[in-house]
Amino acid sequence: METPKLPCPPQSLLGCLCVGFNVDVRHPRLFHGPAEAQFGYKVLQRVGGGEKWLLVGAPWDSNRQGDVYKCRVGPPNTNCTKANLGTTMRAAPLSSAPASAPGWTVISGRWGPSRLRHSVSGGMAAVCGAPCRDVATPCRCQLRPPLAGCSTYMDIVIVLDGSNSIYPWYEVQNFLSNILNKFFIGPGQIQVGVLQYGERAVHEWVLGRYQTAEEVVEAAKNISRQEGRETRTAFAIHQACTEAFSPERGGRADATRLMIVVTDGESHDGEELPEQALCLADAGPPSPQVLGHYLRRQQDPEDFIREIKYIASDPDEKYFFNVTDEAALNDIVDALGDRIFSLEGTHGYNESSFELEMSQIGFSLHLLEDGILFGTVGAYDWDGAVLEESRRGRIIPPRKAFEKEFPLELKNHAAYLGYAVSSLQLPGGQRLYVAGAPRFQHKGKVILFEMGTTGTVTVAQALTGEQIGSYFGSEVCALDVDGDGVTDVLLVAAPMYLGAQSREMGRVYLYRVGQRLLAPAGTLHANKKPQDSRFGYALAAVPDLNHDGFNDVVVGAPLEDGHRGAVYVYHGAPGTLLPNYKQRIEAAALSPTLSYFGRSVDGQLDLDGDGLVDLAVGAQGVAVLLRSRQIVQINTSLTVEPPAINVIQKNCQRGGTGAVCLRARVCFRAGTRARGQQDREIELRYNVSLEERTPGARAAFDSSARRLLQRRLELSLGRQSCLRFPFHVLDTTDYLRPLSFTVRLAMAESTGPVLDERSPTTIRKLIPFFKDCGEDDECVTDLVLRATMDIVGSSRQSPHVLRKGRRKVVVDVVLENKKENAYNASLLLRFTNNLHFSSLALQDTSPVKLECTALPGHRRLCSVGYPVFRSLAKVSFTLELEFSCSVLLDRAEVTLEASSDSTEATLEDNMVQLSAPIRYEPDLFLSSDANLHRYEVHPLGTFPHGPGPEFKTMVKVRTYGGGGGVGSWGVLAHLALPPGAEFWEPRQWGTATVVPVHPEDLLHVDRLDCSNAWCQELSCQLGRLDRGGEVSIHILRTIHNDFFRGAKFRSVKVISTIWLGVPESSMLLLEEGAHRREVGDPRTLAAPQTWGTGLYRHPPSLFPPFFFCRWCLKSSRGSGCPSPSGSWWAASWGGCSSWH
Q1: Tens-place pLDDT, residues 185-233
Q2: Distance (Å, rounded) from C-alpha 1040 to C-alpha 1054?
Q3: Which of 154, 509, 524, 1076 could form a disulfide with 256 if both were Cys (CB 3.0 to 4.6 A apart)?
Q4: CATH 3.40.50.410 residue ranges in the chain?
Q5: Could you count the other beta carbons within 10 Å of the beta carbon of residue 921?
Q6: What torsion, rounded to 10 degrees, do the Cα atoms 249, 250, 251, 253 define?
Q7: Any idea where the VWFA domain is (predicted)?
Q8: How would you label 638-654 residue by residue, b for 16+ Cβ within 10 Å and e otherwise?
Q9: Which residues, other chains included, contact 897 with Cβ-Cβ below 8 Å and sequence gap of 6+?
Q10: Checking DSSP bridges between strand 154-161 and strand 190-197, what pairing results, if any?
Q11: Nearest CA to 238 among 264, 210, 200?
């Protein structure tokens, strides 16, 4: 029964845009049948007598005889009715195709899994005509068995030992049930009778009494043991030979006769067995199978075995079975079936090699222009073959016809040639037959060949599979893409091809048909997910589904999605088939209960009356009918007035400000190439948008102040409908990039037509801004930038020196446009970190506006004449920058770069880079102080021994905080401290040679300094000095009394020199002599009438070289340097360095 499918939920417009295919998956029609009968194994569309049908094969129906169901495509709730072909054909309808005559259908069949495990028939075909449309009566079909099939027309009599020695009896009953289930019992097929014997013989039932296997098995269960003390086997065989096969007891004169004897021991009338053997021989072949013998009570079986073998058919190893007890009878059921199979299947007496007896004609078929090509997979010991029945007559190729491609030494390998058949029409008019052999050498083969009227075969080409077990050639499909009568493509399926993760993904090979040979053209692409799929299990060429003028192909994959299945649709193209699928129809989208969807496909006819081809798909117990939908083309045009946006001339008011207003006109026209209703109305959904997916709004619709409008429209095929959409442009900085206006459309109906995949669903128009830039509408501008800086400095040797009171730099800038308009012109200012932006002032009365905004990293971006810097315009301005007091760099750089959204003619003059070397003159103050200004030396003899008193000198370096001063670092404080050791020896000090004053000449010198005494020099690195900061240097020295004991003097003033300096690489510059100070050390006085006497080769120093140096930083927020202490002095050692 058909099950209606609920419509899918509505989707958004963006989710329902044209997807390029037209098989409707939202409204399938599902026809249900018995799943256990394999309903859905094959599907076939059929039209006849004004009715439309879906024929569905069920090969296991009617006790596995097979049948066809007729499902009328009409009212929603239509039942499928059995055609009852099985009672006539005794075969399962596995292959079917519409015949060339209208109203007729060819149905071919073979035995499905029959009552004998291997038993199959030669097959047959039926041509069923118009009477099949009457569901009340069986179809009248003309049977056309092309060959005399393997005979199952057989009478079998089982001669059963029922004497007392048979025990347990139920094991014998089980054996009977099992073996009887192997027989294909029915009218015109096998008849079974049972004769039980002991001392006497009884006919339990005669031949023909029971018509089905079920009835015979039930009767076997009710057989009671006859019992008896004697086993009269010869007597029972005589009764069976003379009575059981007689016409009076149901025997058929033309049926093959088979006797099965089941006994357990030596007979009591064994001497009569040779006579009965002669009787059997006179009755004609075949001789009976003889079963039996098992040991009981340790009796010697040799005589019995010799007895049974005597009456059994030869050779004994094939027709004699020996079991140990009644329970073991069931172990030989299959072997017994094989023996019966060979008896009924071969023509000659005791033969075992088959020719055409098991051809299975009808396993596959292909309609020719003048006949039918059948596949006979069972022919020639399952090597397979083909058979043609046409106007040329019946053509049966002999076994040797295929010997070149299928060598005789491989005859037991079961190539299954004829598993799939087809034909090709070559460009020159030549016709080639195609036959697949999926088991050939386990990889499969497809041959293309010609066949003469005598059965001769000429193979033109052979295609071989690439993977063992892939079943290459199990399906073939020839496709005439453009319908010109010449085959363009051949598809060959290998549905069991192992893909990723060793999954049976399947593969379909594509071959292009040339003048005489086929060329590989890749494979069809399916779902890439690693899964069991069996893609290619079913193939079908279908008429042009998408109305593009090219025929298409449908491929089944029944194991995809966990055996739920899927079907793929591939579209044709000029001379080929597109390898990427256009639609994947998964079973889950149709019904949650579908399984093995895609096991068969067919699509040739229009079954729903809309003039379009529909698709039939078989599943497990279900046949699915999918309608194709009309394809329409929507031609959309879009115009905008005015055609450009003039931002200089506002033409309307929006939101209280001037704006540019425009109006868009959108027109739709619908058409179709498909047959069917040409005057129908379709419903269209569409949206219009401004600046789609672009951040920042530059325009909006007048009706809603939004950028997106969604609408519906009723549209007639062949007619045009137009709509208008007014909108306005907002103020924006982006005037060069065109404004986009977009129309997106989709069909509103889920059951109606679909958009052609080649019909655009998105139409976008770019609306340019009016630029006033000539006929080409391309603005080519030439921005020329000039700039000068008021500071000079050519090199490091002659830098620009920054002094107190002069901390600014002025840049004069001129920018002009010498060509066409420059839109969104801008000037980017970049300057080094030691400069700060101060001001920008226009120098003339030019109407050009200049607006600057700060950017990160010492940059300014200035818009010039927004929105357009007109042609031949010019602007001059002054840029004032101020030097940083905290960041000192050795160069000051200013970079200016002009740009616009227009095309620049010459980029070389768009950038100016100004640079000058910089040195800084710090504002430093140097001062000093000492805590001992006078030291009096006592007369000779009263000098204390050891060092004299300690005295301290403090030097301060201070930076001024006001007046724009800069901080300093890298300043060195130098101290020259006289006198030192080796007092009188000449030494080099600076650039002069110093000759120290001898101690005895001190009477004539009133001062000691570095010009007449050797000086010890200290150098201290002051570190960073911020504005208002202070550094103190403390020097601790000791007066050495021993010096004065050997000196002659009255009064000596010792002068130390302090000066500041910087390294040559420093950015600081100190004026010569501006930072030098003399510090008076303690004046030394001799006591009256007392002179120091004595000469020393190495007199001691006045101030020994033992000293400490300390510096501290005093900031404007600090409280000064700490007071010296012992620990502090020790910790400060090394702050300065000294040398002689």
Answers
A1: 888 888 999 999 888 899 999 999 998 888 999 998 888 888 777 888 8
A2: 13
A3: 154
A4: 154-340
A5: 18
A6: 120
A7: 155-336
A8: bebeeebbebeebeeeb
A9: 785, 827, 828, 830, 910, 911
A10: parallel
A11: 200
User: What's this model's pTM, rounded to 2 decimal places?
Assistant: 0.58
Sites in the chain below the pLDDT cut of 70 = 1-20, 76-77, 86-152, 265-266, 270-354, 410-412, 675-679, 732-733, 736, 794, 796, 805-806, 937-946, 961-969, 979-992, 1041-1049, 1072-1074, 1081-1140
Query: Architecture of 924-1079 per CATH?
Result: Sandwich (2.60)
Tokens in use for 85?
């072909």
**Quick check: helix, strand or coil at residue 63?**
helix
Q: At what angle do helices 302-311 and 273-282 cross, to 10 degrees?
A: 20
Per-residue pLDDT of 225-266, as tens digits, reads 887 778 888 888 888 888 888 899 999 988 888 888 887 766
In DSSP notation, 457-487 reads: EEEEEEEE-SSTTS-BTSEEEEE-SSSSSS-
* DSSP state letter for 897: E
Q: Is 243 strand, coil or helix? A: helix
Assign residue 444 a region (left: φ > 0; alpha: ψ between -120 and 50; beta: otherwise).
left
% of the chain exceeding 70 in pLDDT: 74
Q: Which of 544, 721, 755 is nearest to 632 (CA)?
A: 755
- State in words which class domain 780-919 has: mainly beta
Task: Compute the distance between CA of residue 228 and CA of residue 380 in angstroms, rounded to an integer.
Answer: 49
Q: Per 3-state DSSP, what percentage of the chain is helix, strand, and coil (rounded to 5)?
A: 15, 40, 45
Max distance between CA atoms of the chain, in angstroms, equals 184
Calculate the alpha carbon distances from 927 to 286, 373, 952, 956 in Å. 143, 123, 14, 5
Query: In the CATH scheme, what is the homologous superfamily, with its name and number, of domain 154-340?
Result: von Willebrand factor, type A domain (3.40.50.410)
CA angle 665/666/670 to nearest 5° reads 150
569 membership: H or E segment, kind and range: strand 566-570
- Give the relative orientation of helices 333-345 and 169-180 as an angle to the nearest 10 degrees: 40
Q: Which amino acid is at 1040?
A: H
